[in-house]
Amino acid sequence: MSEILVLYYSRSGATAGLARHVCRGIESVSGVAARLRTVPPVSAENEGPVKHVPESGAPYATLADLRETQGLVLGSPTRFGNMAAPLKYFLDGTSSLWLDGGLAGKPAGVFTSTQTQHGGQESTLLSMMLPLIHHGMYIVGIPFTERLLSTTRTGGSPYGASHVAGHDAGPQLSDDEKHLAQILGKRVAELALTLSRASRR
After folding, report:
1. Residue 127 sits in which domain range?
2. Is 0.90 topped by the overall pTM?
């Protein structure tokens, strides 16, 4: 059984909602399972240490999760057109995987959530791709052969799945956003299987 790591940071619940639909897409592919993980918030020194186990939701990710899985789908809310600091902090600690090529040759996709349609979704998705490219991962997007990319009035991008919360900042995903997140997960899972079979030949 191949596993794909779905790693995200979420504050309002929208990015976590996308992560769950990415997992559904992954698990729609026979022989592939999703491993759902999150990262802790970054806190200032005077706020005290971060708890080692979250009070609820997915467990915190470790470098072992990245090493043991056959692919990665990374998610973050948008912070001024960039990924959120907690996710970047985690990725900044992956140099040992870079040194030994632990992620090289694995497929990866990205997803995000913003409050507004023009809140920096695409630049955030691109910002998450950069460290993955440095790790030698294969970047997977959503092709325009998926008709929803041309018809959706909510989230969705060729760079990855996304959600537009609107002014109410709600975590409720549209049907289009759910479907595109599932498509992204499915595409990463299918490529992981293809690469795994090719390596056994």
Report:
1. 2-199
2. yes
